[in-house]
Write a structure and sequence with these properties.
The protein has helices spanning 10-38, 41-45, 53-60, 64-76, 92-98, 114-121, 124-130, 140-163, 170-176, 189-197, 210-223, 259-269, 287-293, 297-312, 328-337, and strands spanning 81-84, 87-89, 179-183, 202-207, 228-232, 244-250, 270-281, 342-346, 353-359. It is α/β, with parallel strands linked by helices. Helix 11 links the parallel strand 4 (202-207) and strand 5. Helix 8 (140-163) packs parallel to helix 10 (189-197). The chain starts with 9 loop residues before the first helix and ends with a strand. It binds S-adenosylmethionine (SAM). S-adenosylmethionine binds next to helix 8 and strand 4.
Length: 360
């Protein structure tokens, strides 16, 4: 029994129970989305109209009894529409998030390393005690694949066509032949898109994750791209020779144990008229503002503990900025501290990220 002797408010008990059971429901439904993706069920449903569990089982080569339990649950969760008569349909609006691999809104990738994310949770009680977190390689190769799937389509459909044209003179520099780098490049999808679009430019990707670098090299080989090199940032980091025209960092500064050192290295690596494009999580400077304005704040803190802050504390003395920690005011202060003098914010219709064009 709780030792708190204050009288209990029945309304609050009811609301609290609904909230907690809502998260339990979310946990179960998340696991079912993982299975739907892994087993190709969403793709099999995409564009086929209403089907029965028998028809879906036949199409996917799975056992009908399991498919029936899964699809009824998906209908109860409001993901798949129940059309009556034991027929189920995936709407095109939901397919954009779960099935259509060419959709810029594809979100199913976030579920694809769910077991690896959850396995990491088992190691976190130790991190709470020691203060030392886990870097991205703790999630294994599937973790790197998951991140690639989360961010990949945004790069494929937005980066070259919509983002680069908004940056001061960057497209003409890249067309003419420039030197560019992506730090924290993950599986290298952003670089591949740029390397294909600008064959006269030379691109370099840096990361500390061995799993991400392995995927990046495979992706490069598959694409047959020649003007792209990947580097292990731990042993072969950016040289401070003011030789780069363009540097990008996508969703990674807040993950770094020493972001200030990376920001200084970027400053030293850029030409005096070079540019740095930052994408980082949209967040407000205070906890109170995030709490009030962003309905995703609970999810962002959870991802921080499971991933971003854990990575940013994965070495003793880590800065530990975490998912919400590199907001615009922090970015302005840290870039100014490193010697950058120009800072411009852009918005590219991304619900999670803010973009900053920063120049020496
Ligand atoms: C959330 S992932 C983003 C990956 C990639 N930019 C993307 O958008 O797909 C963060 C990446 O930052 C990398 N990272 C963390 N600290 C780093 C450092 N000091 N130098 C280079 N990369 C780092 C991690 O290994 C991980 O691949």
């Amino acid at each position: 029994m709780s030792t708190d002797s204050r009288p209990l408010d029945p309304q609050k008990i009811k609301a609290g129970g609904e909230r907690i059971f809502g998260y339990i429901k979310g946990m179960g439904v998340s696991a079912m989305i993982y299975l739907g993706d892994k087993l190709g069920l969403y793709q099999a449903l995409d564009g086929t109209g209403p089907v029965t569990s028998e028809e879906l089982a036949q199409k996917t080569g799975l056992h009908e009894r399991w498919v029936r339990e899964w699809i009824r649950g998906q209908a109860a969760a409001g993901i798949i529409d129940y059309k009556g008569d034991e027929r189920f349909e995936l709407s095109p609006e939901i397919a954009m998030f779960l099935a259509d691999s060419n959709s810029p809104k594809l979100a199913v990738g976030i579920f694809s390393d769910l077991p690896q994310r959850m396995a990491v949770v088992e190691r976190l009680p130790e991190a709470f005690k020691t203060g030392i977190g886990l870097n991205y390689d703790a999630r294994g190769p599937e973790g790197a694949r998951g991140i690639e799937r989360v961010f990949g389509n945004w790069y494929r459909f937005t980066l070259v066509s919509q983002v680069l044209p908004k940056l001061d003179g960057m497209v003409s520099k890249l067309q003419a032949g420039a030197k560019a780098a992506d730090i924290g490049c993950g599986a290298g999808v952003a670089l591949l898109e740029m390397a294909k679009a600008f064959p006269k430019s030379a691109f370099h990707g840096y990361d500390i994750s061995q799993h991400a670098l392995a995927r990046a090299k495979e992706n490069k080989a598959r694409a047959g791209v020649k003007n792209l090199t990947f580097h292990d940032a731990k042993t072969d980091g950016l040289s401070p020779d003011a030789s780069f025209d363009f540097i990008t960092t996508f969703d990674c500064i807040h993950d770094m144990t020493n972001p200030a050192a990376t920001i200084r290295a970027i400053h030293s690596a850029l030409k005096p008229n070079g540019s740095w494009l930052i994408a980082d999580i949209k967040s407000a400077p205070t906890f109170e503002e995030n709490l009030e304005k962003n309905p995703m704040t609970a999810m962002l803190y959870a991802f921080s503990v499971m991933g971003c802050m854990s990575s940013a504390l994965s070495e003793p003395g880590g800065a530990g900025l975490g998912t919400l920690g590199f907001n615009e005011s922090v970015a302005r202060a840290m870039t100014a501290e490193a010697g950058f003098t120009r800072f411009r914010r852009h918005d590219f219709e991304n619900p999670f990220n803010a973009y900053y064009e920063v120049r020496p």
